Amino acid sequence: MQQTQNVALPSVGVIGLGSMGMGIARSLLRAGFDTWGCDLSESARSSFAADGGHVAQSPAALGERVDVLFCVVVNARQAQEVLLGEQGACTRMAPGGVVIQCATCAPDAVRALAAPLEALGLSLIDAPISGGAVKAAAGELTVMASGGAEAFDKAAGALDAVSARLFRLGEAIGAGSQVKLVNQLLAGVHIAAAAEAMAYGISGGCDPDALFEVITASAGNSWMFENRVPHILHADYSPRSAVDIFVKDLGLVHESALGRKFPLPLTAQALSMFTQASAMGLGGEDDAAVVKIFPGVQLPKAKEA
Question: Where is the active site (predicted)?
Answer without folding.
Answer: 180
